[in-house]
Amino acid sequence: MQLPPEILAIFRDEAKEHLEDVAAGLEQLGASGDPVSETEHRVNLKRKLHNVKGAANSVGFASLGKIAHAAEDRLATVADGDPVPRQIVDDLFAAVHWLLESLEEPGDPPAELQRRLGLEVEAAPEPEPEPEPEPAPEPAGKKRKRVLRGTKKTPASSADDAPGEEAGPAAASGGASGGFIRVKSTALEQVLSPVAALAMLRVQGRRDIDRLEELALLSQRLADRASEGRLGPEEIDALRELGEELELQYRHGRESSRRTDLALTDLEDQFRRMRLVPFQSLETSLRLTLREACEATGKQVRLEVEGAEAGLDRRHLELLKPPLMHMLRNSVDHGIELPEARTAQGEDPTGTVLLRLETGADRITVVVEDDGAGMDVEAISRKALERGLVTEEELAGLSQGQIFELACSPGFSTARKVTQVSGRGVGLDVVRTAMEREGGSLSIEAREPKGTRFLLSLPASLLTTNVLRVTAGGRVYALPVAGVESTSRVDPESIFTLDGRPCVEIGGRSALVHRLQGVESQGEGGDERSHAVVIVTPRGRVAVLVDRILGDDEMVVRALGPPYRKVRGVLGATIGEEGQVVPVLNPVEIFDIDQAGIRAAKPKAARVRRAILVVDDSITTRTLERHVLESHGYLVQTASDGSQAFEALKAGNYDLVVSDVEMPVLDGIGLARKIRADPELGKKPLILVTSLGSEEDEERGRKAGADAYIVKSRFDQTQLLQTIAELLGDAE
Question: Higher pLDDT residue, 299 or 229?
């Protein structure tokens, strides 16, 4: 029987509360020195584990119930009055850690954990390999159709993995999957006040609309009489009264708008407060992670937390938890020395890792710093040279901070061997990517007198963002205001090349130039200057060239879903004043794109001549697909259904068609059949991009004549671009 999500959410909340209490209680074992008090303390711990066991079994999470029961039995092996051995405490901590991490998606407990808790581990039978099916023979002379099925990526479950794209971290309370939070009744009462005010304003607004409709009819009658030259004294008086009434309605409307804004602002503030969760709700999981890393490395480390009482949005906590767990493992494995080494240096054998939460008006920052040996600059430099990330000459000119930046390269690791804690090359680059995907950043500093400091920064609000609206090539884009240093005008002659990349000097310092796709060569007033928005990123300055700067605004930014989640340079999307989809750009990724020379590379200039027709009834999908394709050098036109698309194909010259399947008037299957039946268009490459992913749906698309069939929920934009390049013969 499938339980309602409310029940599962309640179970996760209750179990998390009990397990956090058990973790805190294990830390206090033996602290009182009173045998009677210690016995009561252990009874309380066993009772909480017993409650977790019973609740887990009742909701069908047998694996959780099994481990909770084993942990309870393990603690019960100690006789009353006897101290709890260190090994049993460590085993119980391992059990609690696994239980907390498994509340969202219970799986089979690790064999090693089961052995530590005294459980028998049954060897799983090895599955027999399935024979690979023989490929069906191709009919002679028939062109083979390309059918693509996107594969769902499964994140690796290594000990030092940081958050990947597919891995969704557990919610701070109740779990992300359930979507439930605990709210105090007083908080709900506070929400009712602005809601009541909005309800009154809605009634008043309806009355104002009715009155304005009456005034509009009167105005029309008077205008008709005036056009005939037949206004009498009474009608002139009515015209004067109409003007006064309209002035009064204008003042009423302005006051109503002001009161609506206040009520909405109050309501937004109340909802934000309801979503706040104390930062300390992460503390138990982080302490267990640190303890696990110490046990694996033989090191002694204490964790200190500052600002734990401060409240953060639940989504902040969900985003920060996996990176912070990785940072703690990193500090233990790469930073803190072994106890004997610290003692030999005259230091406390127990190292310290400090977590400090700093909140500001626009951003929140979590500082992770340790008092260890610090990052090994020589090892990082040596590894960077081995991997060809830099040359000897380039390395000589890098600062310490820039060398630290090399450690954030994909797959980078200075570990000499793979251990349970690190060495797999999955680390800082994934942490940085996770931060930058949400408009945040990761920076690394040396700590005085020794140690390393990591700063993880995120926007203070993940719901709304202050953006600067700009236009380029007739389209509207948005840039996050955070990080915008200045705006200026740039002459084409002032752009110079530095290390093969276009740069410009603004404010006495150079900045990498990024020209948004479609920026016109001539600016306002007939000159050829472009507007430049100078943005400071953790890796340097970038000057984004645009046609016009429209102004700044606070907007709700939505994250991109499949298949656009991994579009390089795009943070999300919002809705503009005229209802159009506005891409919100990610300056950090824009800097990386230009630094690598992806968009400025001359060999891809020929792609500008390739024209693609995008067909989809969703304006959001059309806009995002057009942005992806235009950012890679293609000319793009759009159509909202198959009928419009076929007319456009007959009237224009397109190299390829990308079409949805489910559309009004003429769907994608019908469009494919019409294209294949047309003598002029019959060989036109066609890709169907759809949410219909069954074998039968793909077979329909193939029979209709599609050259490729891509399922939206299971691919990223790289697959679409690669397929287009192959069908057009542009693949490298």
Answer: 299
Shortest CA distance to 442 belongs to which of 529, 320, 342, 345?
320
What six digits make up the tokens of 75? 């603690």
Q: Where are the alpha helices (DSSP H) in 228-336?
A: 233-275, 283-297, 314-330
| Strand 301-306 relative to strand 351-359, pairing | parallel
Instruction: Compute CA distances 449 → 38, 80, 373, 374, 400, whole Å.
Output: 42, 48, 10, 10, 15
Q: Which residue has the higher pLDDT, 457 or 254?
A: 457
What DSSP string runs through 442-465?
Answer: EEEEEPSSS-EEEEEEEES-SSEE
Q: 478 near 487, Cβ under 8 Å?
A: no
> Quick one: tokens of 243?
């003007």
| pLDDT tens string 490-518 | 888 888 876 667 888 888 788 888 887 65
For residue 82, pLDDT over 70 is answered with yes
**Sign of the torsion angle spanned by Cα atoms 726, 728, 729, 732:** negative
- Tokens found for residue 222: 């008077």
Q: What is the pLDDT of residue 593?
A: 60
Contact 368, 355 (CB under 8 A): yes
Q: Which two tokens stand for residue 268?
A: 């937004």
* Closest C-alpha to 587, from 433, 455, 483, 473: 483
Tell me the CB-side half-sphere exposure of residue 166, using CA atoms within 13 A. Answer: 12
E strand residue ranges, 447-575: 452-459, 464-472, 475-480, 484-490, 496-498, 501-506, 509-515, 530-537, 540-546, 548-556, 570-575
Tokens of 208: 């104002």
Q: What is the DSSP letter of 280?
A: G
Q: Which pair of tokens denotes residue 569?
A: 């340079």
End-to-end CA gap in the chain: 52
Structural tokens at position 427: 């680390």
* CA-based nearest residue to 494, from 519, 542, 529, 518: 529
Give CA–CA dist 465/469, Å, rounded.
Answer: 12
Residue with tokens 């691919």: 715
Residues in the chain: 732
Q: For 689-710, what is each residue's pLDDT tens digit?
A: 887 777 788 888 889 999 988 8
Nearest to 725 by CA among 669, 658, 680: 658
Residue 686 has pLDDT above 90, yes or no: yes
